[in-house]
Amino acid sequence: MHVSDILADLLDEQAALDPIVRALSDADWATPTASPRWTVTDQIAHLTFFDAKAAVAIASPERWDEERNRLFGAGGDVGVDELTLTAVRELPPGERHAAWVRGRAALEHAAKELADDTRVPWYGPSMGAKSFLTARLMECWAHGQDVIDAVGASRPPSDRLRHVAQMGYATRGWTYLNRGESAPPGEVQVRLTGPSGDVWTWGPDDAGARVHGPAEDFCLVVTQRRHLDDVSLVVEGAVAVDWLAKAQAFAGPPTDGPPPGRFV
Question: Are 224 and 201 in contact (CB under 8 A)?
Fold first, then answer.
């Protein structure tokens, strides 16, 4: 898969959330979400800020140290929220969706110039272009899920979830490193059924631990949008159970997902 293919899927993932965001009432924008402190407005503000900054990282890497230092100097969760969310929070509700559209349009314009082997600077280590856009897709899908859960909307799953699932599998080691732990020895095979019925597999056939079931459920767990007890994944082996209890496919300090039963 080329970076242009991932960009096309990113644009489709963003477009899939558009009807839900456009339909939000003023009251909906103020609805609390599962993320501590964050409303629906804040979820979209987060996407708006980081899509726009992703465009800067691609188009103007020489400016990136300044951008990164600004965020790192914000000071704590509240300071970061003020820096990243305030611009959209201060807009009238009817203008918030348009702000996100502008931010992601800038990202699309910049990303069209990416080559498969381009390295893009970011808030942590630089990322390959394909991984960089995959992370943006994962963010859109996961924060979109927060909005959907908050307002009781629905979004049909698509095979774009393969990107999220692949990142979820690839970040198993990161999950432990981020917590200052060593991953338990042993391999895990993940075998998932996508929305179209295709089967996606990662990991060796002789792995001592296995995860199988719907791709959407796996994605919800590794992005910490659902507790493992509340999905229909079949998890075999202590190594796999331990991983999915802690799985974190996104950057940032270690966090825990929702408690069991929250979304049942």
Answer: no
